[in-house]
Amino acid sequence: MHFFIKALPLLALAAAHPIESRGAVEKRALSANDTSVLQLALFLEHLEFVLYTGGYENFTDAQYTAEGFPAGFRENVQLIAEQEQTHIDTISTVLLENGVTPIPACTYSFPYSDPKSFVALANMITTVGIGAYIGGSLELTDNTGVLQTAASILPNEARHDAYLRTGAGASPFPVPFDTALTALFAYNLGHMFVVECPMELPGQVLLPKLNLTSPTPPENLQPPIAAGTTLTFAWDPSTFFVTVDPNAPLYMAFINQISPPIFEEVTKTGTGTGTVPVPSGVGGIAFAVLSTFSGGLDEMSLSQFGTLAGPAEVALS
Hints:
This protein is α+β, with helices and mostly antiparallel strands and 317 residues long. The chain contains eight helices and eleven strands.
């Protein structure tokens, strides 16, 4: 089942109050980098708000309880939605105060059908948001006010994710480091749930899709998917931005935590399909991209010129 949801006043947000931006943000004009980072953050906050609102409205307390979630879980999903609305209001205010039109919400389709599949999806999407804030902080070094706003939202997003994972029976902190994402990768990961948008995010492009087809991670991510486990991916070579020799070797680059990407050669199993083993040392949620490069690229280089398809999210623990 897919829930098709348009971002309208879906939920009475009694506890959501916009936070006034601090003087450092108001008085200093936003740079192009500042604006790009905030617009991407807003794009993802809209996505999360609609996702969590649906997780509250589409299921009852009894349905959550029947699937093993603790008492009060649904009410906390509502509270998460309210806090996402506060993030939206805060970022929108900063942009408007600087003469920038905030990117509006889109219409989304979310592939969940019950509380467990909702929480699994929310874990994946919130992880993208966390990665985008970490990656975006590298672009905000010239504006401490905006950096402070982003840095204040980041741990709140991490608390949301830890609560979801605990409710599902997974570890709230499976790895010692979260994974930074470039703007392009975060945008593509979020955009896969978009049906249509009144306004696309300036400066971003949609990359060819990469799909993880197996294995399906366990509902509570326990036990973790072990190193060496075979992962099967699918892609459409006709969508590549460059021409690739069908006989040329392909590689899967795994972006995870703070280590450089790990490259594994793909064993081709057909046109647009192949397998790779889970690399050693990779855990939590990793991000995989298909490449013709066998190594030597960091995430930014993969984002700029090294990716044929992807990224795909890989939930390991």
